[in-house]
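Need tokens for this chain, all 123 residues.
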Amino acid sequence: MDPTLIISLFELAANTTLSVLGANGTIPPQYATLASALESSINPLILALKGGAAPSQDVLAAYGAMIGTLNALQQTTGIDPKVLTQVKEYIGAAQDGTTGFLLAQKGYNAANYSPVEPPAPTA
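Here are the structure tokens for all 123 residues:
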């Protein structure tokens, strides 16, 4: 059986279950919304890895999935402010990682670097 079809069937079952459980109050609505957002973030990664794309595209899909997942968490209500602070830091790190990866593909650029100054001697 085609793996894409299996993923689609699983998604349909999960979405239906979440809709029913969220509508009848079994789970808080924000969790159903979060699960749907996570699915939207992770699906492109699954399809990219299955599709046999270039490794660089797989890396970008992984960064996209991380950023999408973290953004979904950031927008979820009822999360501890300490956790939200960490999520924001992780989003920044993932965005920086994406930028660094894209710059690295362009090769070495001496203008991006400067000499390292040795630390001052201590007494």
